Amino acid sequence: MKWVDEFRGAAKVRQLACLIKAISQTPAAIMEVCGGQTHAILRFGLDQLLPPHLELLHGPGCPVCVTPSRVLDFSVELCERHGVMLCTFGDMVRVPGTRSDLMHAKARGGDVRMVYSPLDAVQLARDFPDREIVFLAVGFETTAPANAMAVLQARAENLTNFSMVVSQVLVPPAMSALLEAPDCRIRGFLAAGHVCTVTGFSEYGPLAARFRVPMVVTGFEPVDLLYGVLQCVRQIEEGRAEVENAYPRAVRPEGNLPAREQLARVFQVCDREWRGIGMLPRSGWELRPEFAPWDAEKKYASIFSSLPESHGEAAAGCRSGEVLQGRIKPPQCPAFGTRCTPENPFGATMVSSEGACAAYFRYSRNPLDPTLP
Amino acid sequence: MVGLYLIYIMCLAIPGRVLTIDEGDALYRTGEVDFNGARKRVGLGMVPEVCPGQYVLVHVGVALQIVDEAEAATIWGYLEELGEAAEIVSPSPDATPESVGEKS
């Protein structure tokens, strides 16, 4: 509770929590999709403000966590054995591949650079015309505009020494896959605010109707998150299953149309493997064929095809796949906090700061431990 | 503290105020954006109608959407509460986003 008390919106947070308690009768599990939301919920203890019959499930919305090991293996191979300067976001360097992560590849002499933006990788391509620059482009819809922009810039300037390993994933197909599971407990979704800032939420309507599950587009502040839960609970109590926008400050129904236009120019829908979940049809974006010269999978096709297919989890005893799907909470994994820690992570959910395991570890939250609040 | 900075990277977009917009093709133009005191060059191609003085939500160096000032203030309040908003200024030891960004 202390993080909530310290927050200057504490009065509003308490009000919202009281409203939720007053309205909610039906036991239900509500899933927040985005890892940033998971992080905020645990950081501020928002789940503890809810009545006991309301449970928050943590979803698969951590792009670092769902990136398959083959993509990591490919990146390690490129920088370690083929002289490529491999650029990526900082969280990616510790995600285990089959053989190694990028940090260890760097320690062995591979040229791995952490960048803030894909555009910084394009700049490196300009600055080092004699080097091959590969950007490892992971992300959900939120990150896609920046990745698209990088490719468009590289093409406009004919930077032939720049290419991208694209591992873009999409939220709605993952939601659909979770809802299709026969033992699915999800009775409501908090849809990820900044994903919808880009794409809007027209795709969510058919999902809500098909699975009879309310979907509330939700922001990232404590007040936003509880407001999202409140609107979800209202729908559950009233027997509605609609898409609702609880984050209109940043999300328009249609999203950002100019951005969507550019995304459609650059990407096309493809099947994508999700670490811990498996192959999901039409759940990702890949570069369109006309961008093949900047597509590292095509540029280095023989190297990519020589690598083994991704399968399962990296480490034995790691249950991060179940964590990603909201089937278990991190402390229910026997390795959590003992053999598996942020310093020595087994699975990507412990590596990434957005991962549910890392968030539980960071905020010392173990619901199985009665001595903790 | 590197960990917390990374949540900005992967899913949070940060609001900033557009100070200047460079000349050039609308798709590739950049502008200087003020993030509560820290200035950075940001890609503005996805928000072609943006004007100086407006707030934009920025994610990994590219503006995603124009937002109003109230939204910017509330998100900054949240980030300050997390206590690590300053980290977007110098995200990693390897990259030099400021210098790289200046040239782009």
Q: Provide the CATH architecture of the domain at 65-168 and 255-305 in chain A.
A: 3-Layer(aba) Sandwich
* Secondary structure: number of strands of chain B: 5
Largest sheet of chain A: 6 strands, mixed
For the report, how would you describe the main beta sheet of chain B? 5 strands, antiparallel
As a whole number of angstroms, the C-alpha radius of gyration of chain B is 13 Å
Determine the strand fraction of chain A and express it as a percent band.
15-25%
- CATH class category of the domain at 65-168 and 255-305 in chain A: Alpha Beta
Please name the CATH topology of the domain at 65-168 and 255-305 in chain A: Rossmann fold
Name the poorly predicted regions of chain A: 1-8
The CATH topology of chain B comes to: SH3 type barrels
Strand coverage percent of chain B? 25-35%
Strand order of the largest sheet of chain A: 4-3-5-6-11-10
What do the pLDDT scores of chain B average to?
71
CATH architecture group name of chain B = Roll
Keywords:
heterodimer, A: Rossmann fold, 5-stranded parallel β-sheet, 11 strands, 19% strand, disordered N terminus, B: SH3 type barrels, 3 helices, 5 strands, 29% helix
What this model shows, in words?
The complex is a heterodimer of chains A (373) and B (104). With 373 residues, chain A is of the alpha/beta class. Chain A has a domain at 65-168 and 255-305: HypD, alpha/beta domain 2 (Rossmann fold), CATH 3.40.50.11740. Helices cover 40% and strands 19% of the residues of chain A. Chain A has 18 helices and 11 strands. In chain A, the strands form 2 sheets. In chain A, strands 4-3-5-6-11-10 form a 6-stranded mixed sheet, with helices on both faces. Chain A has a 5-stranded parallel sheet with strand order 2-1-7-8-9. In chain A, α7 runs parallel beside α8. The radius of gyration of chain A is 21 Å and the shape is globular. Chain A starts with a helix and ends in an 11-residue tail after the last helix. The model of chain A is unreliable at 1-8 (pLDDT under 50). With 104 residues, chain B is α+β, with helices and mostly antiparallel strands. Chain B is built from 3 helices and 5 strands. At the A-B interface, α3, α7, α8, α10 and α13 of A face α1, β5, α2 and α3 of B.
